[in-house]
Amino acid sequence: MHELLKRPPSICDELPVQETGATILVADDHSANRELLEELLTTSGFTVVTADDGAAALQQFKRLKPDLVLLDVMMPHLNGFEVCARIKADKETYLTPVILVTALSAREDRVAGISSGADDFLTRPIDQSELLARVRALLRLKRHTDELERAEAVLFALARSIESKDPYTEHHCDRLSNYASWLGRSLGLPKQQITALERAGIVHDIGKVAVPDAILLKPGKLTEEEWKIMREHPVIGERICAPLKSFRLVLPIIRHHHEKADGSGYPDGLRAEEIPITARVLQIVDVFDALTTARPYKRALSVEETLEIMALEVGKGWWDQHVFESFKALIAEQPSMFKKAASCG
What we know:
With 345 residues, the protein is of the alpha/beta class. It has 15 helices and five strands.
């Protein structure tokens, strides 16, 4: 028991105000270890919850959504590696910091901890100052991550508010996010670009916030002056999202999803391979969704009719033929998914 910490708590180890008050989950099957960690962390200003095995730790984690997790490796039911891997496998919780605490020191155990997604690895006996310093550093990082997620949430909310102005575009953003990520995966794009496509599906038209409703919702044909205003929205959208570093790969999609392979698109008149592959992916699914969705001036086309029209447009040199063929193959593999989604428009 006395080997868990190398020295007792000190007033010098108190954390800055912004890191204190966080909730920390401590999971260890030895009560003495739990009590010592709980005392140290509580004294340092944290709210602490405990669990005595891996299964209980996951239950507490799902119930409380703590800010940080301290896991003993050798626990019954589920060991620390398994608990950590499950936390990190969940898209909603993978950014929660996890520190593995163990008496093990073998290289393979540390490799296993890193492979499970652990953010840090401490070996007993734990130095109190080191533990608190690492907790503080990970919580500071999580605080910045939370701020980033809130900023992203604001952009998503803004994009959806623009979409909601027109009842005919209901769920358009969510469909594009799904379509684009499915197509990106079928093309073998890297994970980072898949994530960018998921985000871009939501925010690709966020620049329309600067387009007057009289133009945005006009049921008839736009005048040349109105088109000039409308064509500015990709650049405005890029400018709105540019401050977010996490949107670095999203920006080219926002700016270039209205380009055409023959150079007749906007805003930059890019041609063929000059258009980023992710923008070419979003173009295809955007056209597909527009054609399969009802508008005041047209009915919703069937998937078959839509693909025929898109093939003609590929022939005109508008869209990337390889991306289009991959999209057709994806629809052929899972036709019900696309027909169901299209009918919801």
